[in-house]
Structures are given as structure tokens and as C-alpha cells.
Please model this.
Amino acid sequence: MVEDQSLVNVKCPMCETTLVTVEMGEEVKGPFQHKCGKCKRYWRVDYTKKVVTHVRGKVEKTPIKKWLLDLKTGESKPHIH
Model:
């Protein structure tokens, strides 16, 4: 019998499309680069620091380059220096 898995969809900060799905409770470490299938932007998701950073794609239309990631919900909030 398969146990119920608690999955979290990490979303693109700009268009809210799912970038990647991670299993809640599993420890993911380090940065990974993901491409949004909808808006075609590339994002570096650092699961250790819980930060999403814009890497490339639509530079002039991406005013906020760094976002804080909430791994419980998959949502991102703008990083304020």
C-alpha cells in the first residue's frame, strides 16, 4: 500500500506556473536551475537558503530578480534588501 505523500509545487514567481514539485519532509539541498514552461524564464532555486533568483530570459520584463521561497506552500515573496 502506498503512503499518502505530501507534495509542494514550487511556483514561478512571475506567472505562478509550477516549476518543480518537491516532497514535503524530504530535505533538498543546494541550488538547482529550473525553466518555467509558460513564461520561459530560468530560475535558480536554492533550497538550502530558500531563495529563488532570476537567471535569464525576459530580463527587461523581470523587475524583481530575487525572491524568498516558502517551502511549505511553494509561494515566493519579493526579497527586500
Notes: The radius of gyration is 13 Å. The chain has one domain: 7-78.
